[in-house]
Write a structure and sequence with these properties.
The longest helix is centred in the last third of the chain and has 23 residues. Helices cover 40% and strands 17% of the residues. The protein is built from seven helices and six strands, in the order E-H-E-H-H-E-H-E-H-E-E-H-H. It is α/β, with parallel strands linked by helices. The chain is globular, with a radius of gyration of 16 Å. The protein has one domain: Flavodoxin domain (Rossmann fold, 3-Layer(aba) Sandwich), CATH 3.40.50.
């Protein structure tokens, strides 16, 4: 089986965002854990307009008129699984992340997704992830049961992504282990079960 590719989607585009800290910590940890090739997919690099095509993404069959959407489609299509890093906004996810999910359909199908959330409160973005799980199920993705919720991110990670306290590294290892199992299984199934 060829090396698995995991896209790490940074789901906020705010000028001052705590997700940058999370990504600076997360990417080196993922490299240490191994098991796949990990690529950071920052939504700032894919400035998608609100979805405005004449048909649904499923109906469009990857034939998008928007150039950024075509770039986004190609990148997502090439991935075998995902980790979504997101803040929690008003008990939900950022609109820009929901829009990035809504632009595509076939590209997401039958791929697993894990979650890293962050928020200032005690639940660390868990309510946003619960909403996100419903969204990805509709896209025929396989959401992982395990997730990493970072409460009070400013106290846990510094500007350079150094872990200041907590057990985030251990929790991440559990989350990634589950994700890699599902990524391998679903990649094999998508290829017809022949392991290629």
């Amino acid at each position: 089986m060829s090396e698995m590719k995991i896209g790490v989607i940074l789901g906020s585009v705010r000028e001052i965002r705590r997700g940058g800290r999370a990504a600076k910590w997360l990417m080196p940890q993922l490299e240490k854990l191994g098991g796949a090739e990990y690529e950071l997919l920052d939504l700032r690099d894919y400035p998608l307009p609100f979805f405005d095509e004449s048909n649904s993404p499923e109906g469009l069959q990857r034939n998008y008129t928007n150039e950024v959407a075509r770039k986004w489609s190609t990148k997502i299509d090439a991935m075998d699984g995902f980790i979504i890093v997101t803040p929690e906004y008003n008990h939900g996810i950022p609109g820009v992340l929901k829009n990035a999910l809504d632009w595509l359909y076939l590209e997401w199908n039958k791929k697993p997704v894990g979650f890293v959330s962050y928020a200032p409160g005690a639940v660390g973005g868990a309510r946003g992830i619960e909403q996100l799980r419903q969204n990805v199920i509709e896209l025929q993705m396989a959401p992982m049961r395990e997730a990493l919720h970072i409460s009070n991110v400013l106290d846990v990670l510094d500007e350079e992504g150094n872990l200041l306290k907590g057990h985030s590294n251990e929790k991440l290892a559990v989350t990634v282990s589950e994700l890699l199992w599902w990524t391998k299984a679903l990649k094999n199934a998508r290829s017809g079960g022949n392991g290629e």
